[in-house]
Amino acid sequence: MATTVPRIQILSKNNYEEQYIVSLTDTIPLAPLHNSAIRVSPKILSLTTNNFTYARLGHLVGWWDVHPLPPSTPAGFSDVKKYGRISAWGYGVVVESNVTGVEVGTQLYGYLPIGTLPVDLEVQLTPNIPGQILEISKQREKLMSIYNRYMLYSPATTQEEKAKEKQSQGYDSLFQVLFETGYLINRFVLAWEPDLLVLPSDGSEGLRRPSADVKQWTLVDAKVGDNTNVLIFSASGKTALAFAYLLKHRRPTDKKPRAIVGIGSDSTKTFTQQTGLYDYVLAYDSDSRDLGAELALDADSKIIIVDFGSRGGAADRWADKLRQSYKNVALLGVGVEVVADSPEKTTEKILSNLRTPNLKTQVNASEMRSQAMKIMGEKSYFKDFWEEWNLCKEGGVVKGLRLVWGQGMDDLAKAWETLYKGEFGPDEGFVFDLSAERIDKI
């Protein structure tokens, strides 16, 4: 029997800044494990502002339903209309298994609930790719497919291997899924090989918009060359950095943009410049100046704006201004602004964006991945992706970006508060080692 009492993060569904770390004193021993299921104890989790997106849009996309409140939740937090759990990307350890081919002790990477309470996953092996499993429970059948795929790894054995493994898993937890979003945009939305072109979103997952509302994306839209300027908003964000890295380093020479421009807040300008990924770094309010002169644009310039969650609608404002002087301006929406809106206000903002499909094309990573896998085949897709991600890791990921390690749930709770208050540096990436609280014996 474990002596550690599991603790989980519980949030107000109305405001993700209202956070509680709750002890589940009546949870152990856990219920018997179902057939076709594995039990996973979280090991390393990351936090980014992306987690706030899961909370803000959870009522629209189903993220609150992925890992429901456990039956042992204390009465003060058990009202599912008021409270819920949001998940994070990271690693866990299989502590019990009823699935042939998934052994106890196996390490698992994917979308895990925030806390030390083990989670039960109903899974099946992927027939085409060894080392991957899919979550197939009914409660997750409407979830975007990217959140239902998990990667399996054998644990390190020597102390030297364990030290290297921890650093590598820290970067995976923090950056891998964000890097994949950048990879999908660079490789498939801005495709330089016609056969690999995919739509930024096809309406098949997420909010499942009708096909008539999905803006088509052509090879003309995708073309990047020496007259193309890519403007990246919220340029210091980790998904934006991944995309900028791939634009700069992982395209054929004649398919690179003329300029990669980073736009963000004044407080992040120094870090953004020091990454070496951007040709120009400007502030959100630089649109008050002559942008044509500022960016050395000419009449035939192609401008692709990629918005990773700019403040105050800055990307939309810049797009409107640039369209007054330039005919070829595309706006891709990837993230949303980090702001603790109510569910009602968030819903209205999302619906407003969907009403203007001709002005802004929304990106959906899960839909892009599904399209890419259909074109390439699952095995080839992941082979190419792992090569890109491992190359990035071997190079140190992004210049100046560092892992900031915390220990246990108390440190995680403090970092959550630091993030929503905006009191973190753009060079910081928060990851948490839950080993001391992890429940392996149940």
In a few lines, what is going on in this structure?
The chain is 30% helix and 23% strand. It is of the alpha/beta class. It has a 6-stranded antiparallel barrel with strand order 3-5-6-9-8-7. The protein has a 6-stranded parallel beta sheet with strand order 12-11-10-13-14-15, sandwiched between helices.
Question: What descriptive keywords fit this protein?
Answer:
442 residues, alpha/beta, Quinone Oxidoreductase, Chain A, domain 1, Rossmann fold, 2 domains, 12 helices, 17 strands
Description:
The chain has helices spanning about 50-55, 60, 160-190, 220, 240-250, 270-275, 290-295, 315-325, 345-355, 365-375, 380-395, 410-420, and strands at about 5-10, 20-25, 35-45, 85, 85-95, 105-115, 120-125, 130-135, 150-155, 230-235, 260-265, 280-285, 300-305, 330-335, 360, 400-405, 430-435. By secondary structure, the protein is an alpha/beta fold. The chain folds into two domains: about 5-175 and about 400-435, Quinone Oxidoreductase, Chain A, domain 1, CATH 3.90.180.10; about 180-370, NAD(P)-binding Rossmann-like Domain (Rossmann fold, 3-Layer(aba) Sandwich), CATH 3.40.50. The strands form three sheets. The chain has a six-stranded antiparallel barrel with strand order 3-5-6-9-8-7. A six-stranded parallel sheet has the order 12-11-10-13-14-15, sandwiched between helices. Strands 2-1-4 form a three-stranded antiparallel sheet, with helices on one face. About 45% of the residues are buried. The mean pLDDT is about 90.
